[in-house]
Amino acid sequence: MNKILIVDASDSDRRLMVGLLTRAGYEPIAVETMEAAKDEVAKLPSGAVIVAAMKFVRGTAQKLTNW
Question: Which of 11, 28, 52, 63 has the fewest Cβ atoms surrounding its Cβ within 10 A?
Fold first, then answer.
């Protein structure tokens, strides 16, 4: 269980987090939209971590959590 989904509208923030997590031995998956986040959440194993900005393209962390 080393997959981490990153949902953030900022390309630079996504790249930074992907780099840091990759060097730490994780498998980050970075997306920017609510639709892409939902697609990736469906593929995640149980217990995976999701890191989300409060607001991102066509969505919010709260809406993703409620979904």
Answer: 11
